[in-house]
Fold each of these.
Amino acid sequence: MKFWYSNLRASTALSLIAAFGCIQNASAQQIANAQQISSAQDIISPAKNTANFQTYTPDYFSQYAPRTALDMVVQIPGFTISGGGNTKRGLGQGGANVLINGKRISGKTSARDRLSRINASSVVRFEILDGARLDIPGLSGQVANVVYKATTITGNWQWRPSLRKHLEPNLFGGEINVSGSSGELQWSLALKNRAFRFGNRGREFRTSPDGALIETRDEVSRFSNEAPKVATSISWTPRADHIFNLNAEMSKANFDITEFSGHTAFDVRGDNNLTSFENGQDNFRAEIGADYSLPFGPKKLDGTLKIIGIARYLDSPSRANFITLNGTDKIDETRFSTDNETTETILRSEYSWADKMARSWQISLEGAYNRLDANGGLQVLDIPSGQLIDIPLSGSTAIVSEKRGEATLAHTRKITSNIDIQTSVGFEYSQISQTGAQSLKRSFFRPKGFVQASYNIAEDFAVRPRIARDVGQLNFNDFISSVSLRDELSNTGNANLVPEQIWAGEVEFEKKYPKGNIIKIRVYADFISDLVDRIPVGTNGDAVGNINSARRYGVDINATLKSEVFGFDGVQLDTTLDLRNSSVDDPLTGQTRRLNNDKITLWEIGLRHDIKGTNWAFGSTLSDISRSSVFRLDTISSPGGGDIQTKPKLSAFIEHKNISGLKIKTEITNIFNGKDVNDRLLFTNRRDLGQIDISETSRRNFGQTLRLNVSGTF
């Protein structure tokens, strides 16, 4: 308790000192902003083609005392931000299910980042739309359109320190956002640091198949990250129906891992050594994306041409070092380093128009060029000389590139007053090249498209079916050979890797009830060809490769229950339940199993109570997830990433919304004291040829985390 009290007192004092210095005239600013919103509501008209949409005005969110548009959208019943981001293949159609003043977000900027730059005081309203009814091909399900008007310079900030036992305090996480407008120009600027401190500790037990103890390992791991980022966005309307958008960002991330393991032998197969693992990665990212739309073509078509361009750069040098000590004597050392540079350039054009029946059409062309320049090196310690010597690692140095072109035609039409349908047909041509030890060039032609509909059976009940043919995105690092020193695993590069293709089908049911209560059920099935998974290469190679076919299907259920329907005020319950199954024929044994690291179940219950007539709120979240095992050439392991724990995750918070204009939230996580699960089976040979040799069982304790979130506006 002394640890928590002293650190909490220090963090609270720091937060109040910083916050009081930033906020001077919060009340006056809020009054001025309210007047701006009142006038802006008359200026900005509702989105087009959005019959039966639902509107949320700033009054709805007042109980939450939001600072940003992101604070507001996360409180909309039944809505979850999805789509977009850096993992998507190219730009394509659709993107994130968030629009800014009726337009999709330019480039690959995160929707959450973009919303956090908009002050809550500038928001006029949120419109919850149906993706199949919009003139933006590819959007499906619920879409949130944030309508905002910035008439003065406004800003918001957050400070997010956290404390965890056995770790250094994380004091530098937070962000500052400033936005404003001048004439026909709207702009925003953000400075963020996504810093974190993680770690765990525990004992690993290594046993033989008959249960005999071979060795124990007392292990301590620490993970730290500093990731400062600066980002800006500009929207300019030089003349009527001409719109220019620009998004740019630059970041520098320093990620470090350290792990110490003390061994105690109970069998001749064990040892009494000490191992040390260190890994560091320094990422420099830069991205710029812009688009310009203008009237184009015959006047009777009322057509619009939009040109979109994006350029991205990533430099990610890394180094890993694994040392084995017997007492004070170094008996082994291995180093693996990489210096990888990744670039992506995309140019896309979209021409949209409406025919004489007011049905919308869009034809789009997209070209992209992706490139990875990888350089890897492996070194081991030569004991007699005490020098590190280079070890050849075939495939660790290479250049991988892809040239891709795409053409699509999309069409949206209203079938009846309550049925809308949207279709898209197109194709993709790509050429993948690799130089180095596995020099190879291949070309592919793949069809793609979708059909989706929205059927409003009643004003409060909608059904949304969708069938799509998708092409997945490749990770070029899978083409390059590497080693994982921490887990003693090798990864063989695979120059024959191709993108997976998916026939995806789903039906979403949405039922709305009075007072903001809602339930959504999504049933889906994916039929995958060329699944990207782990496969054997040659006799002893273990690589990411393609498996002919696989299936994945499940149901997602989300519900929001607000207490007003029962006569209470201020209580909201959000629940999620995801159930999934999958199947693939194991490339080694031929037996049917789940996809590697695939979700099996996920459930979450979140409760929030805003106490009526006060500035206080409290709540908690309880959740759990299960995933399938990870199958490699000669190992079967539990899922990684810290997802799997011995107990459900319980967190609780208390929040005060106005302490001299500040909102202060304190949260504690992992109240049940769950532990990270790290299990592995090691085989004597390939899994299809050998037997289980060693079982590793580990339960690592990481304790509770105390988090503070102090936010304000200016």
Amino acid sequence: MESLPSTIPSGVKERAAWLAKAGGLEKAIGDGLLSAPVALPLAEALVLGLMRQGVTKYLAIFGHGSTTIGEILRIYSKYGLVQCWQFRNEVEMAHAATALRWIYGEPSAVVTSIGPGALQAMAGSLVSASNGVGVYHLYGDETTHGEGYNMQQVPKPVQGLFGQITSLMGQSYTLHSPGALRAALRRGAMTVFHPWRPGPFYINLPLNTQPRETRIRLDALPELPRLVPAVPGTDVGLAEAARLITESRRVAIKAGGGARSCASAVREFAECTGAAVVLGPGSTGVLPDSHPQNMHVGGSKGSVSGNYVMDEAELLVVIGSRAVCQSDCSGIGWPNVRDVININADPMDVQHYNRTTALCGDAGQVLKRLHARLVRDYPGCAEAKTDWLKACAEKKSEWRKFKTGQFNAELPLDPVWGRRVLSQPQAIKIASDFCKERDVLKLFDAGDVQANGFQIVEDDKPFETFTEAGASYMGFAVSALLAGAIADQGRYAMAFTGDGSFMMNPQVLIDGVEHGVHGTILLLDNRRMSAISELQVAQYGEAFRTSDSVIVDYVQMAASIDGVMALYGGDDGDALKTALRAAHTHSGLSLVHVPVYFGPDATSGMGAYGRWNVGSWCEEVERDYERTLI
């Protein structure tokens, strides 16, 4: 076997071959082979720097602003050092990268060119920014020479406009100088791998600096940050929190997205304190659905039981929540709460409410310490909450009866379809049960499908459902299916989407086949943006410009893509179950089209139970906000 040269060679192809033979970058560093400075193009140094942080998957739409990094990725892919997938739409690509990290924990980099492509990818990155998901975004940028307008740049005589735009969306760095690479990667690592508020990091790559040579020690490229979970420095806040919990008769826990990673600690704490637990749209499963203290979702589009708890609680314990407006009823969701205990790692979010005992730190660690304090100093404190939990249980029973009635209802003739069809709740319930029986991952798109979905799903552990409630981005769920094909160990998933959301990213049909997606698109079609239609009707009595008269044969559309199984889901539960079973057996991507009811019948949706500072409701909500204590 040919021996490995002791020094890394010159030339991109030669270096890639050498690194592959050496066992990869980290192995070469560990063997002491990369301690001397190496001269190489900035684009290659960036790829190696990201490799140092475990980023070896690239999702790309190449353009004239990314040909250099594209060539580096071509060569490094050839030698098995990185992987690269091409896409047909930058928004779809950004969603897939977000889902890859959010669902499977795998970091990646989105690559696109200057101008419209970068702006589209940045628009899609709103999902990772809103939901706290770390993703690298690499954008081609205008040259540093100022030789005149660069094609597709922002046509304004101001320097570095893409750097300004990306810095408004999140953290960003423009590699105007190749020597700044290590600073860019340090800042990138602390954004993409931030312990409690990760997000997108944008690296702008001027066209002419990408191929420029830089000298760098590859063993000096920044590694992943190593951070220890934080806890409060003193026990003063824990003692005050324990006292408040013991003295309060009606305690509520609001479990946000930060509670998902410490679900067992949340459950033990809830049982110890006798608290009723209210979930957010993205935290279903923090308590099992059947747990007697799980009161389901609360907020503007909550539930009978969840919103009852919000209305009646006197002490609020917030765990890992940002107090998003819909989840918090625009700030008026807790009218009787007198004190708040907030557990959050973010020093801003932990102080969101007035009258707060702030326990700033890792939620799981803080809950364990608070639980231990309660057991030690106030044993049996849950016993005083018996009447409270009994009243909550009655409301939970009321909510379950209501749901059963919606699922079993016979709807009137649909005015668009001209026949009886399933309601959205009925179709979602059937599909959700199907997923639960088979351990299928559920992905929900924005709109009415999403809102009905988080009211209906009955998860028993976190991360059985991903609903993009942070930005409510139409087209996310269908795009997220692609992550299952890119992940090392992808799962079969079902994307619950409406006709409007699906048409935001229909190219997933092509990319899904190209990349080998195994999953199903459940397309619930009511020929309108029903969430907005319903809002218009509720506020002003009439829907306006939220529907169309164009008939689309989605089954025929999907069937035109070789490799997609396209199925009609029928007009009743049995037909839908048959279609879902057939889709599940297909080895690739499938689409099931289901016409669903829209109209004035009350059984068409799951209802709304909270308040929201929107449209004609603003004056009343803001008047109530003036009177709030917390």
Amino acid sequence: MTANGARIEDYAFLSDTQTGALVSREACVDWLCFPRFDSGACFAALLGKRENGCWRFFPREKIEKSRRRYRGNTLILETELETASGTVRFIDFMPPRGQNPDFIRIVEGLDGEVALQMELIIRFDYGQIVPWVRKRHGGLEAIAGPDGLILRTPIKTHGKDLTTVAEFTIKKGDRVPFVLTWFESHQEPPKPVAADHALRDTEQFWMRWSEQCQPKTLWDDAVKRSLVVLKGLTYAPTGGLVAALTTSLPEEIGGVRNWDYRYCWLRDATFTLIAFMNAGYKEEATQWREWLLRAIAGSPSQMQIMYGVQGERRLPEFEVPWLGGYENSKPVRIGNAASLQFQIDVYGEVLAAMYRAQVAGIQNGESDWALQEGLTKFLESTWQKPDHGIWEVRGKPRDFTHSKMMAWLAFDQAIKLAEACNCGVGEDLDRWRKVRDQVHGEVCQRGYNSAKNAFTQYYGGETLDASLLIMPLIGFLPANDRRVIGTIEAIQRELIQDGFVLRYRPERKNVDGLPGVEGIFLPCSFWLADCLHIIGRKKEARELFERLLDLRNDLGLLSEEYDPGAKRLLGNFPQAFSHVSLVNSALLLSDQHPVIGG
């Protein structure tokens, strides 16, 4: 829990489609990066103490009840706090914008009257830098280095112990705005924003967007909420989708498995395209594909597994010693050294994404095909090398079965793509078909353990890996193949914890090079539901899927992992991969989602 006692699932997610914030049940903003998802946080209490930056309002009296909800299919948060004297509502939102981001709070009196106090603690650069604060331009300005914030409100504020504070009373019918705007410190702050006009425009933006949702599933409310989250995690100027809003939320409370997820992973490409396209969001799918092509443009040998939101390649990892970590989970990391790893599976993801886009009518141009042809030719000489695998292990490279399987997918999709768009040299296609068959044969021979009747985590190993649940979903082997069914059943025997799926057993063989353990991995649990559905165990699939839905918080949000013992979410939040998996599973279980390699 954070300094204010909040668990990960206690937070709400807000976004303006360029950055975002986390707000607790008590209406405290504990995480906010301006102006981009991957910028330095000005509120970092999530990973430290209150003194590392937060913005909170609290009644003088004890809070007797609290309620919250999103307004329809939007990212407008309404939090109601009830005291003995009255009830107050906080309407929090971030208007989709151009250059200057805003965080807007409207405090509304619903019943009686409530005496409130406000504390605004601004600490730039991840909770470290105390700004210079002064009253100018019709508001309260906070300046340090390149960053500036201005708070505009009719409520009188004053400074106390390096904190901006206010005291005021809200009566029934009162409506008081607080507008916090970021600007470059060497520029003048932008003109004031009319809070109610911004609220109307923000609601219209999200309602228009969510109305485009097309799928007809048994779980459309959950699907729509997940799609809104994915839109909120998309960096609008480029179409890049960040993996999560946060950095360093732990996979084990008190542990060291804490990573920065505010970047765009190629691994998410295919699953995200399928989710957007099958839900009726061709524009978002197209923008994501275009981001993908721009990011990987250049030499195939230099393709990375992840990039910044504008396609940046340098994502150096360093630790922030002044932040104590979420529930003392250290270290807090900024950047991600896994960006330098060699991972074969991303070639399969990229080429599958390109093929699925082509099938959906998002046409490839000549330069696009040239890039894809270059990637495939590069993979011809590299697919046999060991790599760090889908889980970005920090141990030694291995011949991970999933990586080799995804190399097969890369060649398979390149062949189908060339045939679909009638582009490609016959000699290349003949050679790629031979390599595809070679990869397939090797995986079946070296990745399969006959004693376990299952494919294993790496060649010659005995341990299992839930990434192999992808096998029937990409068409590597048919769903009714005895080896596929054997692998699914083995994973159910060895990787299930309290009915959900672990990625692997990190305590065995020390494959990932890190101490400690982790929670159950939510995307893998959705993959198991998919597999159970396609092998005909549809009742089990639906039951597992609905248990996974029950893990969402009260606002429909999921993180990366879940601790079934403590019954709490773990890992960075909200997690795009979890929400993508939810959408795709709902579609597949409703027979509206093709297998990836189909």
